[in-house]
What we know:
Blueprint: E1 6-17, E2 20-31, E3 35-39, H1 46-53, E4 61-66, E5 69-71, H2 75-79, E6 82-85, H3 97-106, H4 112-125, H5 141-151, E7 159-163, H6 171-186, E8 190-194, H7 198-204, E9 207-212, E10 215-220, H8 222-229, E11 233-239, H9 242-250, E12 255-259, E13 262-267, H10 271-277, E14 283-289, H11 292-300
Parallel strand pairs: 3-8, 3-9, 6-7, 7-8
Antiparallel strand pairs: 1-2, 1-4, 4-5, 9-10, 11-13, 11-14, 12-13
Helix pairs in contact: 3-4, 8-11
Amino acid sequence: MSAPASSLVARGLRKSFGPLEVVAGVNLEVESGECFGLLGPNGAGKTTTLKLCLGLIEPDAGEMVLLGEPVPQRAREARRRVGVVPQFDNLDPDFTVAENLLVYGRYFGMRAHAIAARVPELLEFAGLAGRGDAKINTLSGGMKRRLTLARALVNDPQIVFMDEPTTGLDPQARHLIWERLRRLTQQGKTLVLTTHFMEEAERLCNRLAIMDHGRIITEGSPRALIAAHIEPQVVEVHGNGFEAWMEEARSLCPRVERAGDTVFCYTGEVEPILRNLSGKSDLTYLHRRASLEDVFLKLTGRDLRD
């Protein structure tokens, strides 16, 4: 079976704002039907990369093809088959739920009757069946976010770009959106998302790239990245005397890090560490498997980014 065609290809993308190079030679390829994640700290260049791929800003160098169309030369034609979920909801508060969908569909040149025919399906997808006449200010944050996602589907796009789709939502709303996003990939849609939730990326993404300082520093499936970059077991230790115990830990495991008042021990053999800790009544610990967040922090650092 031949490999699926790529929905997005970017080669050698560069973009500077004044003296600052925000995107510094990025290469990306997103296969049709997959969920692809673009991760990185604040200021890594993720949003600028998405804007370049959508043809919203012009690159200083590089080539892009979106749904078979060269970008930015034919970005407008490509965007007719694209959905976008912005980081912050920008629903029109003067319109009802259904009217927001109808107005948005008109931006794509869709006829009113064609949009109206899609509204019931989109409302069901958003978990808003029966709420078509509701005003936007009566909706909860989770409802607004689901409506913004449904709005991005009004033109039946082949690829959907999502900038932090679940930021600010409670766990129940987040899980519901995850279920809806999985449904889209099952329908053959291609998803490209940025997120700061590593659990979200692990759950949803077939592949992802981690970006920092305008460059892609690693790429692969979540499981493959964890296996390649991090020890499989993690023990987090804190409490009185953690600094003295940290010196002991260095003889028990291959890699020890400190963040604030917590010691992180990364190892493939966890039993010696747990035996040692069993006699330390002044220390508290958590033993868990390594996660994508551990990979992210190892590659991009633990320092706060503003």
